Amino acid sequence: MGDGKAQVALEFMICVFVLITVMIFFTIYSGSKSTEGQVMYSKLQADRICWQISSLINTAMYSEGYYSEFSLPLKIDGYDYKVSITNGTVAVDYRGASCIYEIAMTNISLRSQQAPFSLCGGDYYVSNTNNALFIYNRSPVGC
User: What is the DSSP secondary-structure string of 88-142?
Assistant: First the structure.
C-alpha cells in the first residue's frame, strides 16, 4: 500500500512541474507581445503627430486668417524624435522609422526661418497671414 501512494505523489509532482513550466513560457511569450504592442503604439503616436501637423498646415493654407494652437510631446515613450517640415512634406523620424505626409504649402516658415526647419516638443501655433503660413513656438523649449 505504501508504494501506491508514493507513485501518485511523484506523478502529481511531475504534473505540477509541467504546469508551472507551461505557465512560465506563457508569461514570457505574453510579455514579449506586450513589448511589441508598446513599440507599435509608439510608432502610431509618431504617425499621429505627423498627420496632425500636416493636417493643420493644409487647413491653414486654404483659410486666410486661420489660427490654431497645438502641442507636441517632448519625447515619445521616453525617446527623442524629430519633426522636419519642408515646403512639400512633413516627416517624423522616430527610432529608425519615419512617416511622411505631403502638404500643399509652398510658403511656410518657423518665425522668420523659411522651410526646411525642424520642430521639437512644446507648444506652437500656426497662422495664415497674407497667404503666408507661419509657425511660432510658444514654449521656452528649444530644439
Answer: SEEEEEETTEEEEEE---SSEEETTEESSEEE-SEEEEEEEETTEEEEEE-SS--
